[in-house]
Protein backbone atom coordinates (compact mmCIF):
# COMPACT_ATOMS: atom_id res chain seq x y z
CA UNK A 1 0.00 0.00 0.00
CA UNK A 2 2.83 2.38 0.88
CA UNK A 3 4.58 1.79 -2.46
CA UNK A 4 1.32 2.52 -4.35
CA UNK A 5 0.89 5.83 -2.51
CA UNK A 6 4.50 6.79 -3.31
CA UNK A 7 3.95 5.94 -7.00
CA UNK A 8 0.74 8.03 -7.14
CA UNK A 9 2.57 10.98 -5.55
CA UNK A 10 5.53 10.58 -7.90
CA UNK A 11 3.26 10.53 -10.97
CA UNK A 12 1.44 13.65 -9.76
CA UNK A 13 4.71 15.55 -9.31
CA UNK A 14 6.21 14.39 -12.62
CA UNK A 15 3.05 15.14 -14.59
CA UNK A 16 2.51 18.62 -13.14
CA UNK A 17 6.07 19.86 -12.69
CA UNK A 18 8.98 19.61 -15.11
CA UNK A 19 11.33 17.62 -12.87
CA UNK A 20 13.21 15.98 -15.74
CA UNK A 21 16.34 18.11 -15.38
CA UNK A 22 16.19 17.86 -11.60
CA UNK A 23 16.45 14.09 -12.05
CA UNK A 24 19.36 14.62 -14.43
CA UNK A 25 21.06 16.88 -11.90
CA UNK A 26 20.76 14.19 -9.25
CA UNK A 27 22.30 11.65 -11.63
CA UNK A 28 25.26 13.96 -12.30
CA UNK A 29 25.70 14.55 -8.58
CA UNK A 30 25.91 10.81 -7.89
CA UNK A 31 27.73 9.58 -11.02
CA UNK A 32 29.39 12.62 -12.58
CA UNK A 33 32.85 11.30 -11.66
CA UNK A 34 32.52 8.91 -14.61
CA UNK A 35 33.04 11.97 -16.84
CA UNK A 36 36.70 11.73 -15.80
CA UNK A 37 36.99 8.25 -17.33
CA UNK A 38 37.86 9.42 -20.86
CA UNK A 39 40.18 6.55 -21.74
CA UNK A 40 42.42 3.93 -20.22
CA UNK A 41 45.17 1.81 -21.73
CA UNK A 42 46.21 -1.63 -20.48
CA UNK A 43 49.51 -3.13 -21.68
CA UNK A 44 47.99 -6.60 -21.89
CA UNK A 45 45.08 -5.42 -24.08
CA UNK A 46 45.40 -6.16 -27.81
CA UNK A 47 42.40 -4.01 -28.73
CA UNK A 48 40.88 -0.61 -28.04
CA UNK A 49 37.09 -0.40 -27.61
CA UNK A 50 35.07 2.74 -28.10
CA UNK A 51 32.43 3.23 -25.42
CA UNK A 52 29.71 5.70 -26.37
CA UNK A 53 28.74 7.99 -23.53
CA UNK A 54 25.18 7.54 -22.25
CA UNK A 55 23.76 10.83 -21.01
CA UNK A 56 22.90 9.53 -17.54
CA UNK A 57 26.08 7.41 -17.23
CA UNK A 58 24.62 4.00 -17.98
CA UNK A 59 27.79 3.43 -20.02
CA UNK A 60 29.58 3.12 -16.67
CA UNK A 61 28.92 -0.62 -16.67
CA UNK A 62 31.06 -0.96 -19.81
CA UNK A 63 33.80 1.17 -18.21
CA UNK A 64 33.77 -1.00 -15.08
CA UNK A 65 33.85 -4.15 -17.22
CA UNK A 66 36.83 -2.85 -19.21
CA UNK A 67 38.71 -2.08 -16.01
CA UNK A 68 38.05 -5.54 -14.59
CA UNK A 69 38.89 -7.34 -17.84
CA UNK A 70 41.92 -5.09 -18.56
CA UNK A 71 40.56 -3.97 -21.94
CA UNK A 72 41.73 -0.61 -23.29
CA UNK A 73 38.93 1.83 -24.07
CA UNK A 74 38.17 5.36 -25.24
CA UNK A 75 35.01 7.31 -24.48
CA UNK A 76 33.08 8.67 -27.48
CA UNK A 77 30.55 11.46 -26.95
CA UNK A 78 27.88 11.48 -29.67
CA UNK A 79 26.31 14.52 -28.01
CA UNK A 80 29.40 16.54 -28.91
CA UNK A 81 29.52 18.70 -32.05
CA UNK A 82 32.82 17.02 -33.05
CA UNK A 83 31.45 13.47 -32.70
CA UNK A 84 32.42 12.47 -36.24
CA UNK A 85 36.01 13.70 -35.97
CA UNK A 86 36.48 11.95 -32.62
CA UNK A 87 35.49 8.58 -34.12
CA UNK A 88 37.67 9.03 -37.21
CA UNK A 89 40.69 9.90 -35.05
CA UNK A 90 40.25 7.24 -32.36
CA UNK A 91 41.47 4.14 -34.23
CA UNK A 92 38.97 1.81 -32.54
CA UNK A 93 38.52 -1.94 -32.98
CA UNK A 94 34.79 -1.62 -32.41
CA UNK A 95 32.20 0.61 -30.77
CA UNK A 96 29.72 -0.33 -28.02
CA UNK A 97 26.57 1.74 -27.79
CA UNK A 98 23.85 2.15 -25.20
CA UNK A 99 21.60 4.94 -26.53
CA UNK A 100 20.10 7.55 -24.24
CA UNK A 101 16.36 6.89 -24.43
CA UNK A 102 15.08 9.14 -21.62
CA UNK A 103 14.21 11.95 -24.07
CA UNK A 104 13.02 11.42 -27.65
CA UNK A 105 15.41 14.00 -29.24
CA UNK A 106 18.32 12.14 -27.64
CA UNK A 107 17.18 8.76 -28.99
CA UNK A 108 16.60 10.29 -32.44
CA UNK A 109 20.14 11.67 -32.40
CA UNK A 110 21.57 8.27 -31.49
CA UNK A 111 19.53 6.54 -34.21
CA UNK A 112 20.69 9.03 -36.84
CA UNK A 113 24.38 9.14 -35.95
CA UNK A 114 24.75 5.41 -35.35
CA UNK A 115 23.19 4.70 -38.76
CA UNK A 116 25.54 7.21 -40.42
CA UNK A 117 28.60 5.71 -38.70
CA UNK A 118 27.58 2.26 -39.90
CA UNK A 119 26.84 3.39 -43.46
CA UNK A 120 30.26 5.05 -43.69
CA UNK A 121 31.95 1.83 -42.47
CA UNK A 122 33.90 3.84 -39.92
CA UNK A 123 33.90 1.14 -37.23
CA UNK A 124 31.96 -2.01 -36.32
CA UNK A 125 29.10 -1.36 -33.90
CA UNK A 126 27.72 -3.55 -31.12
CA UNK A 127 24.92 -4.41 -30.46
CA UNK A 128 23.29 -4.88 -33.88
CA UNK A 129 22.10 -1.46 -35.03
CA UNK A 130 18.65 -2.74 -36.05
CA UNK A 131 18.11 -3.92 -32.47
CA UNK A 132 19.12 -0.44 -31.26
CA UNK A 133 16.78 1.19 -33.80
CA UNK A 134 13.68 -0.69 -32.60
CA UNK A 135 14.58 -0.35 -28.91
CA UNK A 136 12.24 1.85 -26.86
CA UNK A 137 9.84 2.09 -29.79
CA UNK A 138 6.85 -0.21 -29.63
CA UNK A 139 5.80 1.40 -32.90
CA UNK A 140 8.95 0.23 -34.71
CA UNK A 141 9.05 -3.13 -32.92
CA UNK A 142 5.45 -3.96 -33.83
CA UNK A 143 5.93 -3.18 -37.50
CA UNK A 144 9.32 -4.94 -37.61
CA UNK A 145 7.71 -8.10 -36.20
CA UNK A 146 4.84 -7.81 -38.67
CA UNK A 147 7.04 -7.24 -41.74
CA UNK A 148 9.27 -10.18 -40.81
CA UNK A 149 6.27 -12.44 -40.08
CA UNK A 150 7.41 -13.23 -36.55
CA UNK A 151 4.62 -14.45 -34.22
CA UNK A 152 3.43 -11.64 -31.96
CA UNK A 153 0.17 -10.47 -30.34
CA UNK A 154 -2.22 -9.02 -32.91
CA UNK A 155 -1.65 -5.27 -32.90
CA UNK A 156 -3.18 -2.41 -34.89
CA UNK A 157 -1.59 1.00 -35.45
CA UNK A 158 -3.79 3.94 -36.41
CA UNK A 159 -2.59 7.23 -37.90
CA UNK A 160 -6.08 8.28 -38.99
CA UNK A 161 -8.53 9.42 -36.30
CA UNK A 162 -11.62 8.49 -38.34
CA UNK A 163 -10.29 5.02 -39.09
CA UNK A 164 -9.66 4.53 -35.37
CA UNK A 165 -13.22 5.60 -34.52
CA UNK A 166 -14.64 3.19 -37.09
CA UNK A 167 -12.50 0.39 -35.67
CA UNK A 168 -13.61 1.12 -32.09
CA UNK A 169 -17.28 0.95 -33.12
CA UNK A 170 -16.87 -2.63 -34.30
CA UNK A 171 -14.06 -4.19 -32.25
CA UNK A 172 -14.30 -6.33 -29.14
CA UNK A 173 -12.98 -5.12 -25.78
CA UNK A 174 -10.81 -4.94 -23.79
CA UNK A 175 -7.90 -3.65 -25.87
CA UNK A 176 -4.43 -2.75 -24.67
CA UNK A 177 -3.34 0.81 -25.45
CA UNK A 178 0.46 1.09 -25.61
CA UNK A 179 2.48 4.25 -25.91
CA UNK A 180 5.44 3.74 -28.21
CA UNK A 181 7.92 4.77 -25.53
CA UNK A 182 7.71 3.73 -21.89
CA UNK A 183 9.20 0.98 -19.75
CA UNK A 184 7.72 -1.10 -16.97
CA UNK A 185 4.10 -0.79 -18.23
CA UNK A 186 4.26 3.00 -17.63
CA UNK A 187 2.65 3.67 -21.01
CA UNK A 188 0.22 0.73 -21.04
CA UNK A 189 -3.49 0.98 -20.32
CA UNK A 190 -6.41 -1.42 -20.59
CA UNK A 191 -9.38 0.00 -22.51
CA UNK A 192 -12.67 -1.65 -21.61
CA UNK A 193 -15.21 0.19 -23.79
CA UNK A 194 -15.84 2.73 -26.57
CA UNK A 195 -16.07 5.68 -24.17
CA UNK A 196 -12.59 5.02 -22.81
CA UNK A 197 -11.32 4.54 -26.36
CA UNK A 198 -12.81 7.87 -27.41
CA UNK A 199 -11.23 9.71 -24.48
CA UNK A 200 -7.75 8.38 -25.08
CA UNK A 201 -8.07 8.88 -28.85
CA UNK A 202 -9.07 12.53 -28.43
CA UNK A 203 -6.23 13.10 -26.03
CA UNK A 204 -3.60 11.49 -28.28
CA UNK A 205 -4.70 13.24 -31.48
CA UNK A 206 -5.49 16.66 -29.97
CA UNK A 207 -3.18 17.15 -26.98
CA UNK A 208 -0.56 14.44 -27.06
CA UNK A 209 0.26 11.99 -24.31
CA UNK A 210 3.36 11.20 -22.30
CA UNK A 211 4.43 8.77 -19.62
CA UNK A 212 5.18 10.30 -16.25
CA UNK A 213 8.95 9.74 -16.45
CA UNK A 214 9.34 11.76 -19.65
CA UNK A 215 10.23 15.40 -20.21
CA UNK A 216 7.14 17.60 -20.00
CA UNK A 217 7.45 18.50 -23.70
CA UNK A 218 8.10 14.90 -24.79
CA UNK A 219 4.63 13.92 -25.93
CA UNK A 220 3.43 11.31 -28.41
CA UNK A 221 0.67 12.36 -30.75
CA UNK A 222 -0.83 11.44 -34.11
CA UNK A 223 -0.97 7.66 -33.72
CA UNK A 224 -2.46 4.99 -31.48
CA UNK A 225 -1.16 1.47 -30.88
CA UNK A 226 -3.79 -1.11 -29.85
CA UNK A 227 -2.95 -4.69 -28.96
CA UNK A 228 -5.38 -7.55 -28.45
CA UNK A 229 -5.77 -8.38 -24.76
CA UNK A 230 -4.69 -11.95 -24.09
CA UNK A 231 -6.05 -13.55 -20.93
CA UNK A 232 -4.11 -15.99 -18.78
CA UNK A 233 -0.82 -15.65 -20.63
CA UNK A 234 2.52 -16.38 -19.05
CA UNK A 235 5.46 -14.14 -19.89
CA UNK A 236 9.10 -15.18 -19.98
CA UNK A 237 12.05 -12.89 -20.54
CA UNK A 238 14.74 -14.72 -22.49
CA UNK A 239 18.13 -13.01 -22.70
CA UNK A 240 20.79 -13.82 -25.27
CA UNK A 241 24.36 -12.58 -24.87
CA UNK A 242 26.55 -13.99 -27.62
CA UNK A 243 26.27 -17.76 -27.40
CA UNK A 244 24.73 -17.75 -23.92
CA UNK A 245 21.12 -17.57 -22.73
CA UNK A 246 19.37 -16.61 -19.50
CA UNK A 247 15.71 -16.42 -18.59
CA UNK A 248 13.11 -15.83 -15.91
CA UNK A 249 9.34 -15.56 -15.70
CA UNK A 250 7.75 -12.12 -15.32
CA UNK A 251 4.95 -12.76 -12.84
CA UNK A 252 1.75 -10.80 -13.17
CA UNK A 253 0.89 -8.05 -10.70
CA UNK A 254 -2.45 -6.35 -11.24
CA UNK A 255 -3.27 -6.10 -14.94
CA UNK A 256 0.23 -6.52 -16.40
CA UNK A 257 3.44 -8.53 -16.15
CA UNK A 258 5.81 -5.68 -17.06
CA UNK A 259 6.98 -3.54 -14.17
CA UNK A 260 5.72 -5.94 -11.51
CA UNK A 261 9.25 -6.65 -10.20
CA UNK A 262 7.99 -10.15 -9.37
CA UNK A 263 10.00 -12.93 -10.94
CA UNK A 264 9.82 -16.70 -11.18
CA UNK A 265 12.84 -18.91 -11.75
CA UNK A 266 13.52 -22.34 -13.15
CA UNK A 267 14.30 -23.87 -16.53
CA UNK A 268 12.74 -21.61 -19.19
CA UNK A 269 10.24 -23.36 -21.48
CA UNK A 270 12.09 -24.95 -24.37
CA UNK A 271 9.69 -23.52 -26.95
CA UNK A 272 10.58 -19.99 -25.76
CA UNK A 273 14.29 -20.68 -25.95
CA UNK A 274 13.96 -22.21 -29.41
CA UNK A 275 11.94 -19.27 -30.73
CA UNK A 276 14.44 -16.74 -29.38
CA UNK A 277 17.37 -18.68 -30.82
CA UNK A 278 15.69 -18.89 -34.23
CA UNK A 279 14.91 -15.16 -34.38
CA UNK A 280 18.25 -13.96 -33.00
CA UNK A 281 20.22 -16.28 -35.30
CA UNK A 282 18.33 -15.12 -38.37
CA UNK A 283 18.57 -11.37 -37.66
CA UNK A 284 21.93 -11.35 -35.84
CA UNK A 285 20.38 -10.08 -32.62
CA UNK A 286 23.05 -11.59 -30.33
CA UNK A 287 22.73 -9.09 -27.46
CA UNK A 288 19.04 -8.74 -26.64
CA UNK A 289 16.31 -9.77 -24.29
CA UNK A 290 13.03 -10.91 -25.78
CA UNK A 291 9.76 -10.99 -23.85
CA UNK A 292 7.71 -13.99 -24.92
CA UNK A 293 4.03 -14.59 -24.15
CA UNK A 294 2.83 -18.17 -23.81
CA UNK A 295 -0.91 -18.29 -24.46
CA UNK A 296 -3.24 -20.74 -22.75
CA UNK A 297 -3.26 -22.64 -26.05
CA UNK A 298 0.54 -23.01 -25.80
CA UNK A 299 1.44 -20.55 -28.60
CA UNK A 300 4.59 -18.45 -28.18
CA UNK A 301 4.30 -14.77 -29.18
CA UNK A 302 7.06 -12.17 -29.05
CA UNK A 303 5.94 -9.04 -27.22
CA UNK A 304 9.11 -6.95 -27.01
CA UNK A 305 12.76 -6.97 -28.11
CA UNK A 306 15.32 -4.91 -26.21
CA UNK A 307 19.13 -4.71 -26.35
CA UNK A 308 19.16 -3.33 -22.79
CA UNK A 309 16.88 -3.67 -19.77
CA UNK A 310 16.80 -2.91 -16.07
CA UNK A 311 18.88 -5.28 -13.93
CA UNK A 312 18.97 -4.28 -10.29
CA UNK A 313 22.13 -4.99 -8.30
CA UNK A 314 23.58 -7.28 -11.00
CA UNK A 315 21.14 -10.01 -10.03
CA UNK A 316 21.65 -13.37 -11.70
CA UNK A 317 19.08 -13.87 -14.45
CA UNK A 318 18.86 -17.66 -14.56
CA UNK A 319 18.37 -19.90 -11.55
CA UNK A 320 17.56 -23.60 -11.85
CA UNK A 321 17.02 -25.70 -8.73
CA UNK A 322 18.65 -23.06 -6.56
CA UNK A 323 21.74 -22.70 -8.77
CA UNK A 324 22.53 -19.62 -10.86
CA UNK A 325 24.05 -20.12 -14.29
CA UNK A 326 23.58 -19.83 -18.03
CA UNK A 327 22.43 -21.96 -20.95
CA UNK A 328 24.02 -22.91 -24.25
CA UNK A 329 22.59 -24.86 -27.16
CA UNK A 330 24.50 -28.00 -28.15
CA UNK A 331 24.28 -28.22 -31.95
CA UNK A 332 25.29 -31.91 -31.91
CA UNK A 333 22.71 -33.17 -29.43
CA UNK A 334 20.17 -30.41 -30.17
CA UNK A 335 19.74 -29.93 -26.42
CA UNK A 336 20.00 -27.02 -24.00
CA UNK A 337 22.91 -27.34 -21.57
CA UNK A 338 23.08 -25.65 -18.17
CA UNK A 339 26.37 -24.30 -16.82
CA UNK A 340 26.50 -23.29 -13.15
CA UNK A 341 28.08 -20.00 -12.14
CA UNK A 342 27.63 -16.24 -11.84
CA UNK A 343 27.78 -14.40 -15.15
CA UNK A 344 25.75 -11.20 -14.81
CA UNK A 345 28.28 -8.77 -13.36
CA UNK A 346 28.12 -5.08 -14.34
CA UNK A 347 24.68 -5.50 -15.87
CA UNK A 348 26.02 -8.31 -18.08
CA UNK A 349 28.66 -6.01 -19.61
CA UNK A 350 31.60 -8.28 -18.71
CA UNK A 351 29.99 -11.09 -20.66
CA UNK A 352 28.87 -8.72 -23.42
CA UNK A 353 32.44 -7.55 -24.02
CA UNK A 354 33.88 -11.07 -23.98
CA UNK A 355 31.31 -12.21 -26.54
CA UNK A 356 31.64 -9.02 -28.63
CA UNK A 357 35.39 -9.56 -28.90
CA UNK A 358 34.70 -13.11 -30.10
CA UNK A 359 32.14 -11.79 -32.58
CA UNK A 360 34.51 -9.09 -33.82
CA UNK A 361 37.21 -11.68 -34.52
CA UNK A 362 34.91 -14.00 -36.48
In short:
This protein has eleven helices and 17 strands.
How would you describe this protein?
One of its GO terms (cellular component) is cytoplasm. GO terms for molecular function: ATP binding; metal ion binding; ribosomal S6-glutamic acid ligase activity. The chain is an alpha+beta fold and 362 residues long. It has 3 domains: 94 residues, Rossmann fold; 75 residues, ATP-grasp fold, A domain (Dna Ligase, domain 1), CATH 3.30.1490.20; 126 residues, D-amino Acid Aminotransferase, Chain A, domain 1, CATH 3.30.470. It is built from 11 helices and 17 strands. The strands form 4 sheets. Strands 1-3-2-4-5 form a 5-stranded mixed β-sheet, sandwiched between helices. The chain has a 5-stranded antiparallel β-sheet with strand order 12-11-10-13-14. The chain has a 4-stranded antiparallel β-sheet with strand order 6-9-7-8, sandwiched between helices. α8 runs antiparallel to α9. The longest helix is centred in the N-terminal third of the chain and has 16 residues. The protein is globular. The termini are far apart. The model has no long low-confidence stretch (mean pLDDT 93).
How much helical structure, as a percent, in the residues?
25-40%
Total number of domains:
3
- What does the largest sheet look like? 5 strands, mixed
Strand order in the sheet with the most strands: 1-3-2-4-5
Anisotropy-based shape: globular
Counting DSSP E segments of at least 2 residues, the number of strands comes to 17
Radius of gyration: 21 Å
CATH topology of the largest domain, which one? D-amino Acid Aminotransferase, Chain A, domain 1
CATH class category name of the largest domain: Alpha Beta
Low-confidence stretches: none
User: What structural class should be given to the helix and strand makeup?
Assistant: alpha+beta
**Termini separation:** 52 Å
Mean pLDDT: 93
Order of helices and strands: HHEEHEHEHEHHEHEEHEEEEHEEEEEH
CATH architecture of the largest domain: 2-Layer Sandwich
- Strand fraction band? 15-25%
The total count of helices amounts to: 11
Amino acid sequence: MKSKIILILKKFLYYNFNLFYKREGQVYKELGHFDDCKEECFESSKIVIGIVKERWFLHRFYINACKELKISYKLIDLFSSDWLESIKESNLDFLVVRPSVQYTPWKDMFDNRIRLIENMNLVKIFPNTNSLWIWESKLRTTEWLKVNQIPHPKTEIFYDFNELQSFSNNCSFPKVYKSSIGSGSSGVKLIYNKNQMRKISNRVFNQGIRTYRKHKLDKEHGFVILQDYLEDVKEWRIIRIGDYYFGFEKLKSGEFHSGSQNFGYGMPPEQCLNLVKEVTDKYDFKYVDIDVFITKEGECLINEIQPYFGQKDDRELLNIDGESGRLTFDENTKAWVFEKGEFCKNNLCNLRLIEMIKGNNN
